[in-house]
Specification:
mainly alpha, Rossmann fold
Length: 609
C-alpha cells in the first residue's frame, strides 16, 4: 500500500467499519511505522484541527491497568494542552515529564485498579482511533493483552490500531517442538510462583493461542512498506542542513542510491539511516571550508555503511589506512578516520579533514571500478548509440581532464586507450594529445598498479589494423608505468628498513591488491643490506614480510614473488652455512635473526605454493 492508500484504509476503518475488531500494522523494527503514524496518519485523520488519535506505547508495560491508565492520562493530556493554563501558549513540556507531575493537575495515579477502570470508562473514545504501539515489546502476556484488546473493540466499540513487529512474536515459537501432558506439567512446576503456575504456558503454546485469539480480535493485518524515496526526502528535510540539501539537489540519482543503501546495508532500518544522517550533519557543521560534492557524498555514504555495522555495546575497531578504511566503509565509499573518531568520541580534528580529502583523491586514482561512476567514460564506452557531436564533445572533455594527472583513475587507462583507438577510426579523432598525457601521468606508478588488471584482454571489438595500434599504445603505457629510479626508490640502507615498514603498514591493502611485492626488489642488494643490518633492523625486515604475506595463500601473489623468496632464502642460507660472512661485523644475535628470517621465508613459500 502507498501512504495515501493506507491513510484511506485506516480512515475507512475508523468511520465505517462495523466488525468490532482491531486492525494491525506490522513491519520490521526501524521500518518507519512510528514516523508514519506521527507525521502522516495523525495529521491526515485530524478533523477541524481536533486530533482523533490516542497513541499509547506498550513498551515495557507490566499489566493491563497500565494501559487503562495510559489511555486516561493521554486523553487528559490532550484536553489539558488545549484548555489548561498550566501549559502556556508556546511552551513545550514533554509528556513523560508531565505524566510525572499529574498530581498537581488533580489526577491521582495511585488509585486502585477498580477506580482506574471507572476513570477509564469515563473516557469517551467515540470517533477516535486508539493506537497501541510496540505490541511485541510489552511485558504483558500476549494472550492477556489480546484479551484486553478484544474487550475494547467488542464490548466498548473502540477502534484500535495495533502496531507491531509481528515476526518478533511469531519467531518465539520453536520450529519443531511437541509436548505431552507430562512435559507441560513439569514446565508449569519449574521455577514458578503459584500465580505463574496457573497462568504461564510454553512459548510455542503461547504462539498457538496468540494466533487463535488474533483471528477473533484482529480482522486485517497490513504489512508496512515505507515509501522509501519520500521518507528519505522527508528525513533529509528535517535536518535542514544546507550542505546536505545542496548535495541532494545537485545529484539526481542520490535519493535512489540512498534508498538502495537503506534496503541493503541498513536492512530497511530507518533508525540506522537517521543516526547516520545526524552524524553527517554534525560533521558538516564543523567543517571550516567548502569541499567538493564528491567528498561530502563519500562522508555521508561511508557513515551510513559504517552505522549499519555498529551493534549495541560493540564498537568496531579501526581497520584501514591512516585516513580511510574500505573495510569499515566500502571500496566505493570508504569510511574516513575523522568520521570514525567523531562517532566514537564526539571529537573531530578539523585539520585532518583536508588531509583526508587528499588521501581520498589519491585512492580514487587507484580505484579499479572508478570508471563506473565517470560520466564521460560511460558516454565514451557507449559511443555507438550517441550522436557524433556528443562523442566529440566527450572526447574533448576527456582530453582536457587528462591534463590533470589526478582526475581520471589509472585503472581506466587500458580501456580508455582501446576506445580512443576504435573511435579514432570512426570519426577521425586525433588522440595523440590524450596519449601523451596518459603516458606522462602513469609514469613510475608500476609499484601501485596491477598491470594484469590494467591491460585485461577484453577488447574484442578491435579490428586487425586497430589491434596493432592499441598494442603500441599499451606498450608505451606499460613502459612508462614501470619506469623506476634507483630500484623502486629504496636505498637498501639498513637504516631505511624502519621507514619501509611504516610505508608498508599504510599501503599493505593496496600492495595485497596489486599481488606483487618482494619481486620488485634486487635480491643481491637485499642480502648485502641484511648482513650489514643490526638484529633489530633484521627483525623489522621480517615484520615487513609478515605485514604483507602472513595470511597469503595460493594466487594471492604472482609467481615472481615466490621465486624471489626462494632466491633470497637460498643466498642467505648459503652465506650462513658456509660461514661466508667474515667480512661483516655480525654477532650471534644477528645470526639468530637471519635464521628466523630463513624460517619465515620457508613458511611463506609453502603457504603460497
Amino acid at each position: 500500500m502507498t501512504v495515501t492508500e493506507l491513510n484511506n484504509y485506516i480512515k475507512h476503518y475508523l468511520e465505517e467499519d462495523k466488525t468490532h475488531t482491531a486492525i494491525m500494522l506490522t513491519g520490521e523494527w526501524g521500518s518507519g511505522k512510528t514516523y508514519y503514524i506521527e507525521n502522516q496518519l495523525t495529521k491526515f485523520l485530524q478533523n477541524d484541527k481536533k486530533n482523533r488519535c490516542i497513541i499509547i506505547s506498550l513498551y515495557g508495560l507490566e499489566n493491563i491497568a497500565d494501559i487503562s491508565k495510559g489511555i486516561y492520562l493521554e486523553s487528559r493530556m490532550k484536553a489539558l494542552t488545549k484548555d489548561s493554563e498550566v501549559l502556556a501558549t508556546g511552551k513545550f513540556i514533554a509528556k513523560t515529564v508531565l505524566k510525572g507531575a499529574v498530581g498537581m493537575l488533580g489526577i491521582d495515579v495511585n488509585m486502585s485498579e477498580d477506580n482506574l477502570q471507572n476513570l477509564y470508562s469515563s473516557v469517551d473514545l467515540t470517533g477516535k482511533l486508539l493506537i497501541l504501539e510496540d505490541l511485541e515489546r510489552s511485558n504483558i502476556e500476549i494472550v492477556k493483552l489480546l484479551g484486553y484488546i478484544n474487550n475494547l473493540v467488542e464490548r466498548d466499540g473502540v477502534k484500535v490500531l495495533l502496531v507491531a513487529n509481528e515476526n518478533e512474536i511469531l519467531n518465539k515459537q520453536p520450529k519443531t517442538v511437541s509436548y505431552n501432558m507430562e512435559d507441560l506439567a513439569s514446565l508449569f512446576l519449574e521455577n514458578n510462583t503459584k500465580e505463574d503456575k496457573e497462568n504461564s504456558v510454553p512459548e510455542d503454546v503461547q504462539v498457538q493461542k496468540y494466533l487463535r485469539i488474533k483471528e477473533k480480535t484482529i480482522s486485517d493485518t497490513i504489512y508496512f512498506e515505507s515509501d522509501y524515496c519520500e521518507a528519505v526526502k522527508n528525513i533529509i528535510g528535517i535536518f535542514n542542513n544546507e550542505k546536505l540539501q545542496i548535495m541532494v539537489d545537485k545529484d539526481e540519482n542520490i535519493i535512489e542510491e540512498l534508498v538502495s543503501m537503506i534496503r541493503g546495508y541498513c536492512h530497511k532500518n530507518f533508525r540506522t539511516f537517521i543516526f547516520a544522517t545526524q552524524k553527517t550533519v554534525d560533521i558538516f557543521n564543523k567543517m571550516d571550508e567548502d569541499y567538493e560534492d564528491d567528498f561530502l557524498k563519500c562522508i555521508y555514504f561511508g557513515i551510513i555503511c559504517f552505522s549499519s555495522k555498529m551493534k549495541a555495546g560493540e564498537f568496531p575497531k579501526w581497520e584501514g589506512m591512516e585516513y580511510l578504511s574500505t573495510l569499515l566503509g566500502t571500496n566505493r565509499y570508504p569510511l574516513f578516520k575523522f568520521c570514525y573518531d567523531y562517532i566514537r568520541r564526539q571529537k573531530i580534528e578539523v585539520e585532518d579533514i583536508a588531509k583526508t580529502r587528499d588521501a581520498y583523491e589519491k585512492l580514487k586514482l587507484y580505484d579499479k571500478n572508478a570508471d563506473q561512476q565517470d560520466t564521460d567514460l560511460q558516454k565514451l564506452y557507449s559511443y555507438y548509440e550517441r550522436t557524433e557531436s556528443e562523442v566529440k564533445d566527450t572526447l574533448k572533455s576527456i582530453e582536457k581532464r587528462l591534463k590533470n594527472p589526478d582526475d581520471i583513475g589509472f585503472y581506466s587507462y587500458g580501456k580508455l586507450a582501446a576506445y580512443l583507438v576504435m573511435i579514432s577510426h570512426v570519426i577521425e579523432f586525433d588522440y595523440a594529445q590524450c596519449k601523451e598525457y596518459m603516458v606522462k601521468n602513469i609514469k613510475g606508478k608500476g609499484s601501485d598498479i596491477d598491470s594484469h588488471l590494467l591491460f585485461l584482454p577484453m577488447y574484442d571489438n578491435l579490428e586487425e589494423n586497430e589491434k596493432a595500434e592499441f598494442k603500441n599504445f599499451t606498450e608505451q603505457l606499460s613502459e612508462s608505468m614501470n619506469f623506476r629510479n634507483n630500484q623502486n626508490d629504496f636505498s637498501y640502507n639498513p637504516s631505511d628498513i624502519k621507514d619501509l615498514y611504516d610505508s608498508v603498514l599504510k599501503e599493505r591493502y593496496k600492495i595485497s591488491g596489486n599481488h606483487e611485492f618482494i619481486s620488485k626488489y634486487n635480491v643481491s642488494q637485499l642480502v648485502e643490506m641484511l648482513f650489514q643490518a643490526s638484529a633489530r633492523q633484521i627483525m623489522e625486515f621480517r615484520d615487513v614480510l609478515f605485514a604483507i604475506y602472513r595470511h597469503s595463500g595460493k594466487a594471492d601473489f604472482i609467481e615472481a614473488d615466490i621465486h624471489t623468496m626462494k632466491e633470497l632464502l637460498q643466498v642467505v642460507q648459503e652465506k650462513i652455512n658456509s660461514n661466508n660472512y667474515q667480512n661483516y661485523d655480525i654477532d650471534k644475535i644477528q645470526l639468530l635473526q637471519l635464521r628466523y628470517l630463513c624460517r619465515n621465508l620457508k613458511t611463506f613459500i609453502v603457504q603460497m605454493s
